[in-house]
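Team,

Forwarding the record for the chain on the shared tracking sheet. I've put the sequence and predicted structure together so nobody has to dig through attachments.
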Amino acid sequence: MYLIGLTGGIASGKSTVATRLAEHGAVHIDADQLAREAVEPGTDALQQISDTFGSQLILPDGTLDRPALGALVFGHPDELAKLNAIVHPAVQQLTRSHIAEAEQHDPNAIVVYDVPLLAESNLPHRFNLIVVVNASDETRVGRLIANRGMSRSEAHTRIASQASEAERLALADIVIDSDGTLAETLGQADALWSRLVTLSKSPAAG
């Protein structure tokens, strides 16, 4: 198995790259999806969120009111740290399970772990390669306004709540620049896939 850590800030184009790699045949493990699974009704993490932040965050159907929780933690580092301390261990447990399942299914799999908070988290996984998808803050603000309906101030707050560009780039073995067109970003993802196929077959990959 060849394990890739794929990261990038909000609206960096990371999901576009992850989807493209999956189309080529990578096993895509999405940390955001696992974070949703980790707080589904009946989970320990959801109960801890209720105990920590208040039962008003649990909707009548038993699910988490994610927008309300987001409003509580984004822009408030202490509250965000409390939430991360609950959710991250649960996500890591799910991640280990998914990685083991992928390796069992195909020992030669190229696994892309798509994780926005790689720079913020001390992850226990041994990555063969870390790929950072990077775009300027102004590009990302524009995307958040256009695609997610945020105000400019909301977009800046979201970006500021994550690691800085410099912190992410310091981790990178490979950088994909997504400031350009979609076609340019996809072209870089295609080139990355070709490189991953080669690297994963090298004797050092194991």
